[in-house]
Amino acid sequence: MNNESTITRGQLFFLILKFEIGVDILSLPYRIHLISHGGGWISVFLGGILIQLIVLLCWLLMRRFPSSSIYQITTLITGNWIGKILIVAYIGYFLLMGTSVLVNAYGVINRWMLQNTPRWAILALFLFSSIYLVRQKLRIIARVLVLISFLVIPMMVLISYGLKEVNLLYILPLTEAGWSRIISGSDETLMAMFGFEFVLIVFPMVEGKSAGKLKSTAAASAVVVLLYAFTVFICSTAFSPQQLDLMPEPVIYLLRSIPLGTMDRADFLFLPIWLISIFGAICGYYYAASYGLSYLFKQKDHKKAVPYIVIASCLIAYLPQQQEQLELISTIANRSAYFFLVILPFLLLALSYIMKRKEKLI
Questions:
Q1: Which of 148, 177, 315, 346 could form a disulfide with 181 if both were Cys (CB 3.0 to 4.6 A apart)?
Q2: Dihedral sign for Cα atoms in the order 304, 306, 310, 315
Q3: CATH superfamily of 3-354
Q4: 19 touches 149 (CB < 8 A)
Q5: Alpha-carbon distance 27 to 330, whole Å?
Q6: DSSP code of 1?
């Protein structure tokens, strides 16, 4: 495989880290508070355990076909016709997930930064910049996204200023909501951490043995769990339960309430950093969908497929006019992830054992 089409395990770590920290970091403390109350940070750790189990499931499938992505694997196991149907389904899934992130990002930008800017103008910025980056070779994309992933550090530093406002009494008693609700709250963490599925595409393009690839993916997910738990803990202790009930995006409210030297609005510093980070996550989904489309039509690379994927995503994000329709996109994307990341990989793994189909393990 051409070196420009491969990435290192270190790059894989930063890519997964980048993709898993998305729009939901702003709203997760609120959503998880409505379910788990003071035990929200416990729900995050429980969700992290589930994420690791799903990562392990995907790895068990991928290690049986070390030189194939999920698109090739579906054909190898289910045959040509069913395989093509599943390929189209996965392309649609990645396209929908990228659109969901784009829609949510637009919502935040419209509410907090550019209230009077038309939607088409904001989407156009994402369209042209995404096409330019995603058309590049994988290693170039990885280098850019690795740089972007380091923006997580200033984001968490700004959030950590909330330690000045901590009041532990706000989260007591920890099990006020009951263990059943704390466990069910882990579902919010799952939806917030989607992004690790990028490994289903780039697994054969990562240098090294399959065990090392698992370690990189699992380590990145573990770090994200810690960052999310820290964010939920800060917001849950900086605001009273009654305040959190009224704050759909408590991270931004937290930053607005903390003066940072001569800057009265720390959120004006945080949001541009966050926006660049979100751009990386969107490009990851676009690359996955473009790669699948190029494989489906037997193109030698993904470049020609990129404009079709990005334009389709922006059109889907632009057409809905009501907030309920925009929220429906995210709901469908998040719920379909359970099928494409849990049910389908499990079925493919079971069929690979039943039909005794695999490649040489490395």
A1: 177
A2: positive
A3: Amino acid/polyamine transporter I (1.20.1740.10)
A4: no
A5: 13
A6: -
